[in-house]
Structure formats: structure tokens, C-alpha cells
């Protein structure tokens, strides 16, 4: 059986205690590889390697670093079909999705930051008392990058690329539920010429390996994407150590649909926002707010669109909904459907497991689910479900729509559907989120700031925001 080993100091290593975790394909339920169960000792080795590699990587210069990271980007592109298949087998998502979105985005993440560092500048301040101030930006040193299971290589490289481009050395950990593409990525980095120790990839449980990265005194910054509860815990450990922290956490995003929109077109995109990747995207719109005048018409159209999210074997072209990431998560999501019924909701469609048969007979599948009749303040409308479940709520005024949209602890993203330009600007301005899409969803430009407010996180990723996070700024003041 394939062993997913740690990548430390340029080579592959078994975990210190020789303990391994089963890696399950969620579409089949089969254990198909074993994952290194790393502990503090492995983290320590990786941090030491990173510390030793740091001066040479920092001093290499932007051009050379950029060339190496471009080679990594090209390496991912070269292995796109293998990586896409590995991602689908590991996570349960449709193969066409990992082929068209996840892996191409990993290619772009690497090339974006490889080239961005060639175009940055720092500030100067002329002052009138014969002094000149200027700023320098220097890499931090050894940084930790910890990522979740829903968009595995996509989010792993979204952190690693700016960290490395800025001149840091990295100790990174993918989710123990989806480690395969990070493991394959290590070989691509070796082939691309990343010097030993510059990037180290450790596998294992969050509470063991992840916690040891966060608590290590020589890891100076933590970039974390994952659940809000985990983020809160990480902050309690890292903040007293004065580490820089970037936290990209959960969401409970609202989709606001106002009268006057093209109903068929909007319903198609609202369904996409709710159910893409089995609803396992932090940005998915899981609370659909619909203006009362068009509620019935929109609901009928949305039901039709939801039927198009065909559940099936992730390897089939026709599949639009693959497997949920594991049995525990499937049970959690189904539990929320039961809770919705207890809270007074009506399940309009879905809400059940789906038997696929064949090689997927033991996989973790459920049908896309729409629920109506729930109050905005019930648990199902307040807690992150992170699966193919969305609720429908009517509203009568713009103020009411905003009040409902802003009523959760989360504040990651929202999407607004309207033909009224003033309304679009007004609503976007008043939504308590880090990102607002108008008449669109998940349109990404890697230069824009990405992140949430409230319990959805602290800090921003993307473009210059990411390079700022992974550098320290120093002011130098010269008396002329
Ligand atoms: P999670 O918090 O369980 O785990 C995320 C990562 O943290 C994993 O690698 C895990 O091993 C590690 N980890 C767990 N406990 C840790 C600890 N004590 N110390 C250090 N590391 C630890 O999250 P998940 O279930 O993998 O991912 C789903 C969550 O991620 C959802 O809440 C989703 O909204 C969120 N998410 C947010 C964004 C964003 O950009 N805001 C993007 C994707 C996913």
C-alpha cells in the first residue's frame, strides 16, 4: 500500500514513531493509502531544516526565486491529469471539477506569486525636517501553513506560494483527510529545484502535528485555513507567543435575490453557489434569501436547477455532486437535515443518502437538499453545515434582507442578485462580509483581498495582502 511520507529537508521520511493513518477514498469507502502520523519530533526536524535553509533562500534574490517557483507551476501543469485524479479520489469531488478548477488554480497560485514578487516596491516619505524615511520588507523566517480538506492543493498552494515567494521557509501541513496531492506536490518541488529545507510538508492529525507547528517557538507566523473552532484554539496558542496570524475560517454565506432579476439565469447560478463541490466550499451560499414577490416562481426554478446536480461516481463526466469527504461528515450533514425538521423546516428536495452501486456502493453520497420554513435565528440557519444543504427564506424589504444576512456570527462572503444598480452598491456596502459578489459567485482575481470578518477570520490573503503578511516592514529614517 502506498505510504504518504513526510517531505523534510529535500527528502521523504517515515514519521518518527512509524505510526500511520488510514486514507479512505470517500467515493468507495476503501482504504487506499497510509498517511504519516507525525508528531512534535517530526515537526522539530522540519523546523530545523527550514531554519538552516532560510539565509540562502532569503538572499537568493527575487529573480532566481521566481524562476524556481515558475518551474513548480509548470510541474503542476505537466502533472495535471494525475493530480486531478488524485484529488478526486482523495476528496470525493467530481474529476471534471478538479481538472477544470482545483489543479489549474494551483498552477496559477504558484505562477501568480512567482511573478508578483518581480513587480513590488516599497515606500519612501520625504519629510520637511531634512529626513528621508523609507521602508524595507523582509521575510519573516520559518512560517507554518495549515490547510483544510475541501480544496486541498488549491488552498495548500494559495498559502505556500506567497510564503516562499516572499523569501520565507515553510513547514506546511495539509488536512489528514486529503493529503495525497500535497504528497505528490513534494516531488514536483524537488524536480523544480526547490532547495532542501525551503519547503517541508508534514502529514498527520491536527491536534498532534498541526498543534506542534503552531506551538513551535521558531515558527514565527501561522497561516491557517479551516474551521472557526480550530482557528480560535490556534489563536489562543499563537497570540501569547506574538506570532503573526492569518486565519481564514468558516462561513454561513447569504445569497440575496431581489425582484426584477432573470429568474432562470439567477436560479442556475444560485444553485451553483449552493451545491458546487458538494457544498463543501467556505464560500457556498447556504442561506438563500428571496424577495417575497418572486418567492414561489424562484423556488420552482431553483428546484429544477437543483435536480441537475446529479449525484454519482466522481469519475463520471455526468456527475455534478460527488461524495462527501468522509462518513463522519456525511453523518454530520444528515444530522443537520434532521435538526431542520425538528426546527420546523420542510425539506423540499433531497436530504437523504444516495445509493450509487458498483464501485461506489460503500461511498458517502447524499442528495442536494433545499429546506424552507425555518426562522433566520434557528441553528440550521446559524451554524455552518458545509455540505449540499441550503435554506430558503423570504423577505419583504431590503432592510429585512440585510438584517437576516448579517444575523450570523460569520462574515465571509455574500452574493447579491439585482438589476437595480443603486441597490447593488447599497446592499454590498452594508453586508458584514469580507467579499461581496454582485450578479456572480466565486469569480476570483488573485490580486484582490480575500478573507472574512467576524468569526470568519482575521487578515486577508491574495495579491499584495499575502506578501505583506509574509514579510515584516521596517522603517529606516535618515537625517540628510
Ligand atoms: P479543521 O479546522 O478541522 O482543519 C483544518 C486544518 O487544521 C487541518 O489540516 C487540520 O489537521 C488542522 N488542525 C486541526 N486541529 C488543529 C490544531 N489544534 N492545531 C493546528 N492545526 C489543526 O477544518 P476542516 O474541517 O479541514 O475544513 C473545513 C473548514 O474550513 C470549514 O469551516 C470551512 O468553512 C473552512 N474553510 C475556510 C476557508 C476560507 O478561506 N475562509 C476556505 C476553506 C475552508
Keywords:
480 residues; alpha/beta; Aldehyde Dehydrogenase, Chain A, domain 1; Aldehyde Dehydrogenase, Chain A, domain 2; 2 domains; seven-stranded mixed sheet; binds nicotinamide-adenine-dinucleotide
Structure description:
- The chain has 480 residues and is α/β, with parallel strands linked by helices.
- The protein has 2 domains: 2-249 and 456-479, Aldehyde Dehydrogenase, Chain A, domain 1 (3-Layer(aba) Sandwich); 253-447, Aldehyde Dehydrogenase, Chain A, domain 2, CATH 3.40.309.
- Helices cover 40% and strands 22% of the residues.
- The protein has 15 helices and 23 strands.
- The protein has helices spanning 40-59, 62-78, 80-91, 95-116, 152-165, 180-192, 206-215, 228-238, 263-275, 295-307, 327-342, 379-382, 398-405, 421-430, 463-469, and strands at residues 2-4, 6-8, 11-13, 20-24, 31-36, 124-126, 131-139, 142-146, 169-173, 199-201, 221-225, 244-248, 253-257, 285-291, 346-349, 369-372, 389-395, 410-411, 413-417, 435-438, 453-454, 457-458, 471-479.
- The strands form 6 sheets. Strands 15-16-17-14-13-19-20 form a 7-stranded mixed sheet, sandwiched between helices. The protein has a 6-stranded mixed sheet with strand order 10-9-8-11-12-22, with helices on both faces. A 3-stranded mixed sheet has the order 1-5-4, with no helix packed on it.
- Helix 1 packs across helix 7 (206-215) and helix 4 (95-116) packs parallel to helix 5.
- The longest helix has 22 residues, at 95-116.
- It is globular, with a radius of gyration of 23 Å.
- The protein starts with a strand and ends with a strand.
- Bound molecules: nicotinamide-adenine-dinucleotide (NAD).
Amino acid at each position: 500500500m502506498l505510504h504518504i511520507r513526510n517531505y523534510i529537508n529535500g527528502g521523504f521520511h517515515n514519521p518518527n514513531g512509524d505510526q500511520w493513518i488510514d486514507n479512505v477514498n470517500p467515493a468507495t469507502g476503501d482504504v487506499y493509502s497510509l498517511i504519516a502520523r507525525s508528531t512534535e519530533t517530526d515537526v522539530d526536524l522540519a523546523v530545523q531544516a527550514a531554519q538552516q535553509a532560510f539565509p540562502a533562500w532569503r538572499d537568493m534574490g527575487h529573480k532566481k526565486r521566481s524562476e524556481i517557483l515558475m518551474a513548480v507551476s509548470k510541474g503542476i501543469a505537466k502533472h495535471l491529469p494525475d493530480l486531478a485524479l488524485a484529488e478526486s479520489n482523495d476528496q470525493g469531488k467530481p474529476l471534471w471539477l478538479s481538472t477544470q478548477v482545483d489543479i489549474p488554480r494551483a498552477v496559477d497560485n504558484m505562477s501568480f506569486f512567482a511573478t508578483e514578487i518581480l513587480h513590488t516596491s516599497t515606500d519612501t516619505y520625504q519629510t520637511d525636517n531634512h529626513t528621508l524615511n523609507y521602508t524595507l520588507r523582509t521575510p519573516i523566517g520559518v512560517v507554518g501553513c495549515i490547510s483544510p480538506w475541501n480544496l486541498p492543493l488549491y488552498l495548500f498552494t494559495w498559502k505556500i506560494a506567497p510564503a516562499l515567494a516572499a523569501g520565507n521557509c515553510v513547514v506546511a501541513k495539509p488536512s489528514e483527510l486529503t493529503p495525497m496531492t500535497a504528497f505528490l506536490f513534494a516531488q514536483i518541488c524537488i524536480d523544480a529545484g526547490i532547495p532542501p529545507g525551503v519547503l517541508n510538508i508534514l502529514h498527520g492529525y491536527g491536534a498532534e502535528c498541526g498543534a506542534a507547528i503552531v506551538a513551535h517557538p521558531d515558527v514565527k507566523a501561522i497561516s491557517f485555513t479551516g474551521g472557526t473552532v480550530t482557528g480560535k484554539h490556534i489563536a489562543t496558542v499563537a497570540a501569547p507567543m506574538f506570532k503573526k496570524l492569518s486565519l481564514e475560517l468558516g462561513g454561513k454565506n447569504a445569497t440575496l435575490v431581489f425582484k426584477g432579476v432573470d429568474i432562470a439565469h439567477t436560479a442556475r447560478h444560485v444553485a451553483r453557489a449552493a451545491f458546487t463541490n458538494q457544498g463543501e466550499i467556505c464560500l457556498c451560499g447556504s442561506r438563500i434569501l428571496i424577495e417575497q414577490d418572486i418567492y414561489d416562481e424562484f423556488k420552482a426554478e431553483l428546484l429544477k436547477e437543483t435536480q441537475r446536480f446529479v449525484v454519482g461516481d466522481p469519475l463520471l463526466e455526468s456527475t455534478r455532486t460527488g461524495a462527501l469527504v468522509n462518513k463522519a461528515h456525511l453523518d454530520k450533514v444528515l444530522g443537520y437535515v434532521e435538526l431542520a425538521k425538528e426546527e420546523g423546516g420542510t425539506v423540499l428536495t433531497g436530504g437523504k443518502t444516495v445509493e450509487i452501486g458498483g464501485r461506489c456502493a460503500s461511498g458517502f453520497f447524499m442528495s442536494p437538499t433545499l429546506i424552507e420554513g425555518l426562522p433566520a435565528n434557528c441553528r440550521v440557519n446559524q451554524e455552518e453545515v458545509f455540505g449540499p444543504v441550503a435554506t430558503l427564506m423570504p423577505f419583504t424589504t431590503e432592510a429585512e434582507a440585510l438584517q437576516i444576512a448579517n444575523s450570523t456570527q460569520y462574515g465571509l462572503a455574500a452574493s447579491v442578485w439585482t438589476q437595480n444598480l443603486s441597490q447593488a452598491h447599497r446592499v454590498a456596502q452594508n453586508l458584514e462580509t469580507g467579499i461581496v459578489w454582485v450578479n456572480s459567485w466565486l469569480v476570483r482575481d488573485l490580486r484582490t483581498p480575500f478573507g472574512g470578518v467576524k468569526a470568519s477570520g482575521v487578515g486577508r490573503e491574495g495579491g499584495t495582502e499575502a506578501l505583506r503578511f509574509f514579510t515584516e516592514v521596517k522603517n529606516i529614517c535618515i537625517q540628510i
